[in-house]
Write a structure and sequence with these properties.
Elements lengths: L3 H4 L7 E4 L3 E6 L31 E2 L8 E7 L2 H12 L5 E9 L6 E5 L2 E3 L9 E3 L7 E9 L5 E8 L6 H8 L23 E8 L8 E4 L7 H6 L9
Parallel strand pairs: 4-11
Antiparallel strand pairs: 1-2, 2-4, 3-4, 5-10, 5-11, 6-9, 7-8, 9-10, 11-12
Length: 239
Amino acid sequence: MPPADALVADIGARLLYRDGLILVIDKPAGLPVHPGPKGGETLTDHLDGLRFGLPRRPEVAHRLDRDTSGCLALGRHPKALARLNKLFAASGSVGKTYWALVEGGPDEADGSIDLPLARRSDDPRSWWMKVDPAGDPSLTRWQVLGRSPDRALTWLALTPVTGRTHQLRVHCAASGWPILGDPIYGTAPRFGGPGLQLHARTLSLPLYPKKPPILVTAPAPAHMAPTLAECGWQGESGS
């Protein structure tokens, strides 16, 4: 996976959708959205390049993990951001579908994972999660899109019904098929692995009451393309 700074040399080229209220960009894998305790470059450092004539930079309306690529929505001004925040806070309002490549995979064609999640640690700086009967209710629906010929890998569409931290990663790992490239919940090394094979493929935003939801699709990232092809993906024209 290329370094983060190489991926945002022209953030405008990553624009997927734009109107008067919102933007949706294709966030590159490897770039944090917000500053962390260790500092370093973040997506926030590049948002001035997405003003498109407005006096303020847009602001991010929801989370994507540093190593997750794909659709990320931004509000172009404070009122737009407030509308987006309200939409994301309303359970079931926003539609999200992720593509994941997992090790092994389920035997069935589709199903759901209903496992409550809680933080592993009381340290507020820690985002690592675990399955915990006393945790927050967490539901993920999944569908098999393809498998490698030896069935060592499976290409899944994941739909998070709830939006817990690291929900998809923990749910897949707890089901016995961790996401490929996951160094926290899976088998990947902390450094030098294939990169997290998790991509925010589509985002559906019912932002305007009298119009259909805004539907945005992010192209598959380069670091996932070879494994997707191994599982039957035929490129953007065939997917």
